[in-house]
Amino acid sequence: SLTVNYEKVDVDYRLKHNDLLANVVHRHEVPVTSEPITIVHMDEDVVVVNKPASIPVHPCGRYRHNTVVFILAKEYQLKNLRTIHRLDRLTSGLLLFGRTPKKARQMEHQIRNRLVQKEYICRVDGNFPSEVIECSEPIEVVSYKIGVCKVSPKGKNAQPPSRSWGTTLKPTPASFSAFLTLDG
Description:
Layout: E1 2-4, E2 7-8, E3 21-23, E4 38-42, E5 46-51, H1 68-76, E6 82-83, E7 93-98, H2 101-112, E8 118-125, E9 139-143, E10 148-151, E11 158-159, E12 175-182
Antiparallel strand pairs: 1-2, 1-3, 4-5, 5-7, 6-7, 8-12, 9-10, 11-12
């Protein structure tokens, strides 16, 4: 509702000098998982957390409080963290934050210059063979918002797994896990 000087006014009210105009909107934030954000490592320069799926890294769209940055500030009193990289909202995994501007710049430089290797483990449904499946096609992000990717010549180059194949579940007709390493 629209207020002037903390009081409701008629639509034909004319603003006066020093009037305080406010529009109060009541919003319900989109729910996220109740799975906790766990701190894997913390020192004076860096914080590493395990981010569950469904929680965005920083405020965006309909998310403000249900974000990794806000939750770390509220639950762990970790304020002024510098986001080094991000994971899509629907992606779980390790997330790095710099605690100082200098360390954040150093880590961003390493990522930008491809000195950091990213490894993605995905779980998919379907009737898959038990042998290793290598994807060497470039992968392009279709939508960062909903976390959709596709094989495309415009995408980043995919590399075969850099370590031995593994599964989090026994391969069945219903599910299996795969490792994917992207350049940069």
